[in-house]
């Protein structure tokens, strides 16, 4: 079966490469000509574990192709996945301009029956809009169906998530279109992946309801961490005990500088707008967004309490991507923290295993420099801040880090270190909600119990 994936970003590339691996004939199309040329020459513009190898295999076996020719890409296939971005508008609603653009392109060029699959995260009612946009652009009426198939992959584990998803959600009321899409996902049936079949509107809502729920869990544990800092308790033990309750589950109960990335901030805001558009409010999600807004400052203030003014302080920042195993810095708490520190007058030397180039394109300051290793970044620093929980930071030689530094403050914004071990090495350890994990005599005032 011939498939075209329009939009060769994180989702489109992963979906295209994985579908080719399922045995489909896939063309990944994009309006970004430079990106397509890069991909055609075998270079993958994003860092995602396993993706480069999958793309190389798809290209070698001639099951995967990249194209800038949208007309041909639309005409040559039976199924078109829409995987373009839906960045937020200034008011928080999802911007559907790219989705509209692709829909009109499909309408203009379609020569036969097509199944149009919406993979982008889109607000409720978009499938109906897409149907209208395609119809209006058709020079003559042609038959097609629209399936809502939201994507749940996590950056950093995207290939694994696409190949072994928790579930596949298909929103469509036409049995013929559903049968075609189920055929594409047949390898997942063999793995006994649960399929949830619904109407388009329900499928559209599930995606937002999922991301909003995850955001709520993160903000919930971050607020508990604030309380732990005040009363002298250990949020990790609370999270562990909570997570062992089967009704709650352990995932997304990790305290830190707040949620970021290209999805949770934009999807929570867009979801709130959907409630508003239907004359409702979602107080729970609203609160999660509110808590998140203050969380980064809550963490940075720990440093300010310890160092006083940050003006001209030499700081080492470890991590720039919004999470490990990706070079994506969109809405990255680490990068926002970097900006906050620079704004406060600090001199920041940063290191990230893969995201330096992405960060350099976004933040420029004479007070910001980039290092080749964590120890190089720490050289002469008064404080080290761990802002992204890369595995290589978890296993960092803390004694070596300390001897590279001029000062002794360690702000562990991701709680990756053992507070007692760090304190034993002479660090003034600042975690998030971990006061009780630091031996009593070594606690710093920022986390001391009242
Ligand atoms: P992205 O910005 O990485 O990629 C979007 C791509 O679409 C770009 O390459 C862009 O050039 C291309 N594009 C834009 N307009 C086009 C057009 N008219 N024709 C052809 N190509 C066009 O975005 P992404 O992170 O892959 O996200 C895509 C969608 O998937 C969004 O709706 C997002 O919310 C959703 N999503 C993302 C993730 C994630 O982790 N990134 C996870 C699940 C869902």
Explain what this protein looks like in three dimensions.
The protein has 19 helices and 14 strands. By secondary structure, the protein is α/β, with parallel strands linked by helices. The chain folds into two domains: 197 residues, Rossmann fold (3-Layer(aba) Sandwich), CATH 3.40.50.720; 233 residues, NAD(P)-binding Rossmann-like Domain (Rossmann fold, 3-Layer(aba) Sandwich). The strands form three sheets. It has a six-stranded parallel beta sheet with strand order 3-2-1-4-5-6, sandwiched between helices. Helix 5 crosses helix 6, helix 10 packs across helix 12 and helix 10 runs parallel beside helix 13. The site of nicotinamide-adenine-dinucleotide (NAD) has 25 residues, from helix 1 and helix 5.
Write a brief structural summary:
By secondary structure, the protein is of the alpha/beta class.
Give a topology summary.
Blueprint: E1 2-6, H1 10-21, E2 25-29, H2 33-40, H3 51-60, E3 64-67, H4 70-75, E4 79-82, H5 97-109, E5 114-118, H6 126-137, E6 144-148, H7 158-163, E7 168-171, H8 175-184, H9 186-190, E8 195-198, H10 200-231, H11 235-243, H12 264-277, H13 283-307, E9 314-318, H14 333-343, E10 347-351, H15 356-360, E11 368-370, H16 374-378, E12 383-386, H17 391-394, H18 398-404, E13 409-412, H19 419-424, E14 428-430
Parallel strand pairs: 1-2, 1-4, 2-3, 4-5, 5-6, 7-8, 9-10, 9-12, 10-11, 12-13, 13-14
Nicotinamide-adenine-dinucleotide is lined by residues 6-12, 30-32, 35, 83-86, 98, 101-102, 120-121, 151, 153, 155, 262-263.
